[in-house]
Every structure is written in C-alpha cells, then in structure tokens.
C-alpha cells in the first residue's frame, strides 16, 4: 500500500542545503528528511540519558546539603 504524497514548498536555500547533505546522488528529499527526523529523535534520547545521569550525580554531590563540591563541578 503506497503512502499518500503531498507537495511542500521549500526555499531554494533549503533545497541547496538538502542537496549538500545527500548520502548518495539519487537520495530523495523524502529520505533526507526522514534521516534528519531520526537523528533528531536519537539526539533527544541521548539528551534524556545525559540529563538523567546528571540528576544522579547532583543528588550524590548535593543530596546532603554540602554545596562545596560546586566549585569543582
């Protein structure tokens, strides 16, 4: 079953930027955009992982109210 197709408008500068990040010459704009979306999702997951690790370290360092470690953070 094929997906419904739509037409979108992009500025020429955006098209130029998309062409510059192609992985291979016949890669479609649809494929490029899907790759960018996937990268954005992965980046958010990584950010969540880092933030959670930071929360744990913050509790470890400052959970007892000792803020002297702040100078070395």
* Class per helix and strand makeup: mainly alpha
How many helical stretches? Answer: 2
Mean pLDDT: 84
The best one-word shape is elongated
Query: How far is the first residue's CA from the last residue's CA?
Result: 54 Å
Domain count: the total is 1
In sequence order, what are the helices and strands, one letter per element? HH
- Identify low-pLDDT runs: none
Number of strands: 0
- Rg (C-alpha, Å): 22 Å
Helix content: 55-70%
Major pleated sheet: none
Question: What do you see in this structure?
Answer:
This protein is an all-alpha fold and 73 residues long. It has one domain (12-64). Helices cover 59% and strands 0% of the residues. The protein is built from two helices and no strands. It is elongated and about 60 Å long. The model has no long low-confidence stretch (mean pLDDT 84).
